[in-house]
Amino acid sequence: MLDNLRIFITAAEQGSLTETAKILSMTIATVSRRVTELERALGVELFHRTNKGLTLTSSGNEYYRECANSVNDLNQRLISLDASINDIEGPLRVVVPVNIGSGPLNEFWQIFSSKYPQIALSISLIDANESVMSKQPDIALCSGQQENSSLIQNGLGNITPILVAGPTQKGNLPKTPQELTHINTIAGDIFTDWTLENLDDKSKYNVLKTHTHYCNDMSVSLNLARAGAGIALLPMSLVHDAIERGELLHVLPDWHGPARKISLVWPYQKTISVRAKVFRKTLIDFLDEQPWFESI
Q1: Which residues sit opposite 54 in a β-bridge?
Q2: Which end of the chain has less neighbouring CB within 10 Å, N or C?
Q3: Cβ atoms 143, 159 nearer than 8 A
Q4: 159, 262 Cβ separation under 8 angstroms
Q5: Confidence at residue 162, expressed as pLDDT on a 0 to 100 scale
Q6: Mean pLDDT by 10 residues, the chain (296 residues)
Q7: What is the pLDDT of residue 81?
Q8: Phi, psi at residue 284, to the nearest 5°?
Q9: How far is the C-alpha of 144 from the C-alpha of 190, rounded, in Å?
Q10: Which residues are in the HTH lysR-type domain (predicted)?
């Protein structure tokens, strides 16, 4: 309907099917057909057609006065929106879970801002209980399955949680998952119930106990484990570098927690901008190179 209105307004202003077709890069037959479709939809004749061209009928003239400014204004808004979506320069609102955005993605932020200095990043870090859409982002990184049907989800891969402890506990580490019942443990919001899976035979073991410590921030749980307060189940993304530096020990390396799906999401009704597209591409390239990430 909007396209037919745009054709009608152009034809009214040009007074010629031929000129209208040239301006809109259409055939004369297409312009004539679309004007006729609009007349049938409205139930009135909009133009007098003569060999000299087109002139508005009284109904056509009234209809033109009512809708011309509105349609032209809408066209200008669409042009501005298209420029905003397709221009690499501009703002980009990003939402990321705090346990991924701060720490594991530190190098990524540097890479992205250096590669695209014309993009003004607005980064919101959220905890596990916050809705990713509460910050109205252009694009968001999510951990775990998202049940919101209004979101487009682009699965990127998985991050696996593993058991870790501080170096001071080296002589007191469990040899089987069953022994965790009698050892100090550290739990959090996401990893409260520990279901461990064996890497080789895929058998599972549920650690049924009241954890010694509880914290709703993974970085604090990491520091508690590093200090020797107990064994923690934490995502590989958060502990990989600390293990490499010898600040943490990988406990029961043949066992791990359930992998967490990592996805990029954005609203169905929102057209993804070129800025969000280059963000997605740069992030995927970065994650593919990380030893703590399992790409799909």
Answers
A1: 49
A2: N
A3: yes
A4: yes
A5: 98
A6: 82 91 92 92 91 89 81 66 71 94 96 96 86 83 79 93 96 95 93 94 95 94 96 97 97 96 84 90 97 94
A7: 55
A8: -60, -45
A9: 10
A10: 1-57
Domain 161-256 carries which CATH code? 3.40.190.290
Q: Do domains 90-158+260-295 and 161-256 have the same CATH topology?
A: yes
Burial group, residue 100, by CB count within 10 angstroms (0-12, 13-18, 19+): buried
Token pair belonging to 265? 């999401």
DSSP letter assigned to residue 170: G
What pLDDT sits at residue 76?
67
**What's the chain's Rg over C-alpha atoms?**
30
Whole-Å CA distances, 5 to 35, 36, 64, 77, 129: 8, 11, 9, 16, 47
Q: How far, in Å, CA of 166 to CA of 250, rounded? A: 9
CATH class of 2-86: mainly alpha
Q: Is 35 exposed, middle or buried (0-12, 13-18, 19+ CB in 10 A)?
A: buried
- Residue 149, classified by CB atoms within 10 Å of its CB into exposed (0-12), middle (13-18) or buried (19+), is exposed
Query: Any residues with CB less than 8 A from the CB of 268 and at least 6 apart, and which?
Result: 150, 151, 152
pLDDT at 75: 66
Q: In what order do the strands lie in the sheet with 119-126?
A: 119-126, 90-97, 139-143, 260-267, 151-159, 294-295
Contact in structure between 201 and 162 (CB atoms under 8 Å): no
Interatomic CA distance for residues 6 and 13, integer angstroms: 11
- Calculate the CA dihedral of residues 225, 226, 227, 232 and round it to 10 degrees: 0
Show the tokens assigned to 253: 């390396």
For position 115, what pLDDT does the model report? Answer: 96
- Which pTM does this prediction carry? 0.71
DSSP collapsed to 3 states, 88-142: CCEEEEEEEEHHHHCCCCHHHHHHHHHHCCCEEEEEEEECCCCCHHHHCCCEEEE
